[in-house]
Amino acid sequence: MSKTVLITGGSRGIGAEIVNVLANNSYDVAFSYNSSYENALLIKKEAEVSGSVIEMYKCDVSNRNEVNRLIDNVISDFGKIDLLVNNAGISQEGLFTDITENMWDNVFNINVKGVFNCSQAVLPYMIKRHNGNIINISSMWGQVGASCEVAYSASKAAVIGITKALAKEVAPSGINVNCICPGVISTDMMASYTNEDIEDLRKQTPLGKIGMPSDIANMVAFLASEKSRFITGQVFGVNGGFVI
Ligand code: NAP
After folding, report:
1. Residue 36: pLDDT above 90?
2. What are phi and psi of 63, to 5 degrees?
3. Among residues 236, 35, 27, which one has the least CA distance to residue 136?
4. Side by side, which strands form the sheet with 132-137?
5. Does 152 qualify as catalytic in the annotation?
6. Coil, strand or helix: which one is 130?
7. CA of 189 to the centre of ligand 1 (A)
8. Catalytic residue among 27, 37, 152, 193
9. 1 has pLDDT over 90
């Protein structure tokens, strides 16, 4: 029987590549999008070439009602969720002294409360089956902090904290929880960076290159596989050596 994955924020960037890689690893894939409907449709069509079942759902992960509806719909369509990938997220740049309360809340509502909402809604189904897997996408900035990205760094540090605590709590229920901390990855999230900024980041990366969404998706595929069954509560840097 095929395994089912739910990936949040599968319409673009890293999430879209996770959809593609897991579909090609025989997973049936449910993924959510928020505003990028057209792109989500394209990702669905591309992933369907794998022969896996692919469904897309509109959901703002910061909205509790929308998340509950998402999980109900996925369970109704697929019957189960074996793996949840909490990928949806936003960045926020600027001086700490310029961050407004709204900006702060927005980052935390999507990056942290989104992980809380989705994980809490999915877990009862996993606990019932005594089987499940959650992979959270944090950031290397959650490990070491980035200047002018205090809200983002703090939100991603919270995702690491959620991973470690939740892993201990649900391990007796047969559920693994792990976290990936990407380095600099070429996606729309870097759109605000100038070519100079990107070149600077490339030079700061010991392997001398910017990462691709597939670098993260391949780590997700490993953590989604039976090969990782004895791994839980861990934080994996996929960053070209930027943070060691
Ligand atoms: P991206 O290209 O900007 O894509 C972000 C995704 O998140 C989109 O699919 C978007 O959906 C979704 N999203 C945004 N707000 C949402 C909301 N309120 N509810 C539901 N979905 C929402 O970003 P990315 O680079 O792929 O980043 C993916 C994850 O990796 C994020 O958690 C990010 O923090 C993390 N990360 C990225 C990098 C990097 O260098 N790119 C580095 C470290 C960590 P719509 O477009 O449909 O709205």
Report:
1. yes
2. -100, 110
3. 236
4. 54-58, 28-33, 4-7, 83-86, 132-137, 175-182, 235-238
5. yes
6. coil
7. 7
8. 152
9. no
The pLDDT tens digits of the residues spanning 148-189 come to 999 999 999 999 999 999 999 999 999 999 999 999 999 999
User: Distance of CA 206 to CAs 185, 186, 188, Å?
Assistant: 14, 16, 23
State residue 93's pLDDT score: 95
Which of 6, 34, 61, 109 is the pocket-test mutation for ligand 1 (most atoms within 8 Å of CB)?
34
Return the pLDDT at 192: 86
Are 138 and 235 in contact by the 8 Å Cβ rule? The answer is yes
Give me ligand 1 centre to Cα 86, in Å: 10
Tokens 């897997």 — which residue?
Answer: 133
**Pick from 187, 160, 183, 196: which is nearest to 242 by CA?**
183
Sign, Cα dihedral of 66, 72, 74, 76: negative
Site of tokens 């100038």: 194
Give the tokens for residue 175: 């559920």
User: Is the minimum distance from the CB of 81 to ligand 1 under 6 angstroms?
Assistant: no
